[in-house]
Records
---
Amino acid sequence: MSDPICCVCQEPAGPSAKELGGRWYCAAHYERATKDRRGLWQAGVAQIVGLLALVGLVELLVALVHPQLEGVWLMVASVVMALVPALVWLSFFYQQDRLEPEPKGYVLGVFLLGGLLAMAVALPLTRDVFHTASWLGMSPLVNIAGSILVVGAIHEFLKYAAVRYFVYPMAEFDERIDGIVYGTAAGLGFATALNIEYVLRSGGVDLQAGIISVVVVALAQASFAGVTGYFLGRAKFEHRPIWWMPAGLALASALNGLFTYLRGEVTRGGISLTAGGGHNPWPGLILATVVAVAVFATLSILMRRANQKALAQTAGGAQ
Ligand SMILES: [Zn+2]
């Protein structure tokens, strides 16, 4: 009988070979692939709280100081604001990373790639090829369908591509949970690009409404990419059925589209859509927070359960 080969290092796995989802692992790579990282979930919760605190801080500052920013200064302040969720995330990530290191270059690379794909592909495609602005508002049904099948699908496929065709085949992607780490990085890069584009297109934004919008987009885009990342993480280390990855992308696209539609509905208050006064961003922030908490709690439970199952199999199996 030939010795099973570890699917990560391609070395003979020896007598301590372990099986996970139909593939063989050496003892060391099995342990890495199924590692549960409590610190990561704690950092995730801390980031959501941190972003909400940031909204509170900006609202308070603007209410107290009443800054009269115009022109270039408003633009600079708006762009800085658009960058803040990414900076908050990176600082939490690097903090947590001292305990359980992840190759920083790749995390940053996925983040930048997500942003680049948003700028170079997602925005031109939805705006100039699909002209979504001209028809999404036709009816609620058209809006929901278009938000899922066009906008959601384009967004989520590009975030998927940023991970799948860059870091996924590499040795640095060595834990199932890495899918969620890199997915979130791609989603946040994507969100940052959308936010910067929004700020530049508007020529600077009202800071109080702007900070809410920036945080909503960051929470939402990172959450949906986290879903795709979960599917990617399991696909790399286990044999999954052929529908696995398409199902993951479809789920992320559906969440993205439904969120975009619902956000539009809950923030549209009052009489006029164009006269600013009819727009209330707060319900959008509540919606985004609920979505982010629900997605990360679900992924945390699913991942922990998968890892416990693997451990139980090991304990009950050979030796
Ligand atoms: Zn190995």
Note: Residues 6, 8-9, 11, 26, 28-29 surround zinc ion (CB under 6 Å).
---
Amino acid sequence: MKLLNFETESWMTLHENNCLYNLADSCAKALTFKELYDFVDDKVQFQNHLLETTLDYGPIEGSQRLKEGILQLYQRSNIDELAICHGGINGNELVLMTLLDRGDHIISLTPTYQQLYSFPESIGVDVDLIQLQEEKQWIPDIEEFSSLIKENTKMICLNLPNNPTGTVLSDDLLEKLVELCRAYHLYLLVDEAYRGLYHEVSISDIYEKGISTSGLSKILSTAGLRIGWIKTQDTELIRLINERRDYSIISAGPLNDYLACIVLEHYQEILKRNRNILETNKKYLEKWLKDNPYVSCVIPQYGTICFLKYYLPIPSKLLAQRLQDETGVFFVPGACFDCEYHLRFGLANDPKTVEKGLTVFKKWLEKNGTL
Ligand SMILES: Cc1ncc(COP(=O)(O)O)c(C=O)c1O
């Protein structure tokens, strides 16, 4: 089967390195190596560890220390409920490849992270998407899920908080969804790449067939370490995923593993830094929207991204391209998420860049708008 172009990722690859104001990045402002080093208490020991590391494959399934660090982010802390992989994106792929076969059916959302539906489609899986609506704060109804379940439905694939809308489900809705999945023996894969800034619940803590995928990239600002993981109470699934991992990445590498341990041992400080960034930017965005008739937004409570709606009759790829060419301001166009007249905006980018970029964007809107 044909694998469709991954619209968001390819737009990012083409555009992110020649902009002045990156307002699209979904990761909280990345840490420099120096910033990470500053967190370390025993600097001599840290340096010696790096210099003395043997550059072999390292701990194949991830070190015990790394796993213990990750388990702090969950309520359940059984080490055999965790598999290490190469970023959350590899986690999703490993789960989807391990559990789905041609002819199975899954339910996902739109707009959401394209991997969650295009990848299953490419291996012959039948996919139904629930259209999220802005008028409903981008939140789906339980009836929309139940009405789509078929005899061959195997999994529901979500991303919470959702990329690009920031949607999370209320406790009540999540409970109903878990009950529905339980009744039909469905796996519930939740890509939780953006979870954890504010103690949001993990599906792997509350549902025995719930699968959480995540990584260090987004809320922990260290995408460059490429450490991700899969967490589920289904330990047989973890075993199967580890078997499959042998065919794909072998290991995450000893340096990445070690540096990830340092990140996780300082995760509270990093989260504090990122919550500050996020709150500064949200305040600025709220103010910016107040006297801006060209843009509106359902500002989400969780995650690091939101989806701006603009009121100009210009398709989003054209608008994003023109805006970047003329001003250096970079967004991901809504068309990459099959949702026109929107722009994906990273709420945890450097506040100076956000403030300057939004100011430049506003001037451009005033020049090009017709209101
Ligand atoms: C929802 C979602 N999942 C996974 C990923 C990939 O993350 P990682 O860097 O952990 O592979 C992204 C990156 O944008 C994402 O938005």
Note: The mean pLDDT is 96.
